[in-house]
Amino acid sequence: MAAQPSTDSRERSGPGIIARLERLQVWSLSYGFIIIIGLGFLFTFYDIFDINVSFIQTCVDLKPGCTPETALGSLPLPVVLNLAGYVVGTLVLSPVADRIGRRNMLLITMLITGLGSLYNAFAPDYANFVIARVITGIGIGADLAIVNTYINEVSPRPARARFTTMIFINSAVGAMIGIWLGLILTTEAEKWPLGLPFAVAGPAFGNGWRWMYGIGALLALIAVLLRIQLPESPRWLIARDRAPEADHIVADMEERARHRGPLADPDYDIPASAVTPPPRVPYSTLFTNPLYRRRILLLFALWFIGYITVYSYASGFTSVLSALKYPPPEAGVIAAVGSFGFVGGTIVMTFIVEKLERRYWLPIAAAVTLIGAFLIAVAGTQITVALIGSILVFAGFNLWVSPTYALSAECFPTRARTTGFALVDGVGHIGGGIGVLAIAPILPHLSTLGALMLISSFLVIAAVLAQFTPHTRARNLDHISP
Fold this sequence. Notes:
By secondary structure, this protein is mostly helical. It contains 21 helices and no strands. The chain is globular, with a radius of gyration of 23 Å.
């Protein structure tokens, strides 16, 4: 009869380390790492949203003949190509993270993003502005996939969506900073609530948009310097046959967890695939497996359709409202106040996101978005009603993002998790670009109600698709995706 391995050797083996990691019920890394990762996400979403209010000034400054009323017609190109950059970045760079590590690629992607933002700040003309947006998109597309993979792999099993949402709070703050800075630096002073009395744009200061991208580059530099401190994902280390390094990290995590209470015994029922090294071409792991092919198609459709709503509001809300005859400062105020809904909704979700399965949040998100859009449409001259509607819109269309981030990362195995996330979320960003491109010419010919209902309706379709996704809440990652 073969000798049984000692408890110590079993705990230090690859499956044993994963079993020890899975038993942790609380966040067991330094809470400072949440701030570090969050700062990167703050910049990422700052960059996504900084074009919202500021683009009107950018267009007028860089493109001959552009006016606030016609700026919406010029918005689709930088938005679509920025999102095309997402696709290129996520498809090319995200699989590299499955090969060289999550932490190393987090440094590279943030550096690319910062350089793109710096290029934007000094863009001499509209063509260079668009090119800079592509470069920034390359970095952001890959960064989103890798951050969500990393958080998913180091978070405690009962709270993966909660910690994804906690990181997402920083995204909301970044979005809010991007929108409000745009309002301050790129719109002219107007009496509240038709604008900001202390806005600084005017004939003597028509390049506030450049300052916005310069600030973004500085935020990216800070994020790069801080990310150097992050540990590597233990799951990835094990898949690369670097168990001693993974054991050291997990032992530190266990020590932190013991301060919060006794640890449960490890469950050594870990699939052998959990320690399978990533192939040279991670895409092969996914496309040769019927389970993962189905998940890719479903989650891609979900993100593609949902992002039509998200990016129409996130990148184009001010331009959309201006095309619907709102004065630009007032349109900017409505969008800026809406960002409080983004922050508030994300904070609330941190406490409740684990109460429901991931897929059940999407219908709730769609309903909140539709209610907000309806209030804006019927507000007329009642600016307070429009502001409440904007808060609900931003809270609604972002309500589904963090649980769907968690769901997408959970649906793929460690050996190709970043690649899988890249395929569904990264490539799904094409929907945001196509949506803005296709919808923008139609909106001026619709009523305000018709335009906003059209934009919001895509989130309803995404919510229906989400109901066909798997149950993942509180399950072992390697059982969800063997």
